[in-house]
Design goal:
Helices cover 45% and strands 14% of the residues. It is α/β, with parallel strands linked by helices. Strands 3-2-1-4 form a four-stranded parallel sheet, with helices on both faces. α1 links the parallel β1 and β2. The protein has two domains: 147 residues, HUPs (Rossmann fold), CATH 3.40.50.620; 95 residues, 2-Layer Sandwich (GMP Synthetase, Chain A, domain 3), CATH 3.30.300.
């Protein structure tokens, strides 16, 4: 019997690519696991569920309340370590059956491992999960090229972890996460793509793709958006004219933001 593969599936581009490659080009038995956490937008959960159901992929959705862990709530720069540790310990426990020895994998790519602030990698290595994309030396650019070559779809989650919108040392609460999600959802519903609303108490800093900044300034969008933000409790809304940058709060902390 072939060893079963358990993939920690985020719904992002990389883990979707990895899942599709396993299903299309190998005969390995693969089971996808998605973690339903307070840091996941309900829209993401819905999209992941629809994708996995439509593809006929074996999957499990595991609810995990990350806010039960004080090491996560305090939101230090190593928060991702504790998040990954919490989730992956739950993963290993969930599939701990006598006589079975599944192979646990996840979707970090090589570029992320060497060039980004990724404290979660330590937890991945400590718990013995494998990172096939990282091991193969595949970067995000490589994966995008291969997706196009083999007609593999983009990931269904383009929202990512809501906690990344909150500056370090600001404790994470369900109320803050809900505000961020509702603010971003308004913009996505109005045609914006890469959207981040960074939380600074009563101030929100909005990032959208640089090509969509003009659209954000149109009165038909600006005025109802500001009204919505006021209803959410924001007294001031700033727009980052540099546009969306992945991990901008980490870049600022390191003094590397462009």
């Amino acid at each position: 019997m072939k060893q079963k593969i358990i993939l920690a599936f985020s719904g992002g581009n990389d883990s979707t690519f990895l899942l599709e490659v396993i299903y299309r080009f190998t005969d390995r038995i693969c089971h996808a696991v998605f973690f339903q956490t307070p840091f996941v937008s309900p829209k993401t959960l819905e999209s992941v569920y629809t994708y996995l159901e439509n593809r006929g992929i074996n999957y499990t959705i595991i609810p995990v309340d990350l806010l039960e862990d004080p090491s996560i709530v305090v939101n230090q720069p190593d928060r991702c370590y504790y998040c990954k540790k919490y989730m992956f310990e739950e993963l290993l426990s969930h599939f701990d059956f006598p006589g079975e020895n599944p192979r646990f994998i996840e979707g970090t790519n090589f570029e992320e491992a060497v060039s980004e602030h990724r404290p979660g990698l330590a937890a991945i290595e400590e718990l013995g999960l494998e990172s096939p994309l990282r091991k193969a030396g595949l970067t995000g650019e490589d994966i995008a090229r291969l997706r196009k070559e083999y007609s593999i779809p983009e990931g269904v989650d383009q929202i990512g972890c809501l906690a990344t919108r909150i500056p370090y040392d600001t404790p994470i609460t369900p109320e803050i996460l809900k505000k961020i999600d509702e603010a971003e959802d308004f913009l996505r519903k109005n045609g914006f793509h890469n959207v981040r609303v960074r939380y600074f108490g009563e101030t929100a800093r909005v990032e959208v793709d640089s090509g969509e900044l003009g659209q954000l300034g149109q009165s038909s969008i600006r005025e109802p958006f500001l009204e919505h933000m006021t209803e959410l409790g924001f007294s001031r809304v700033l727009v980052d004219l540099k546009g969306y940058q992945k991990g901008s709060l980490d870049l600022e902390r390191k003094g590397l933001k462009k």
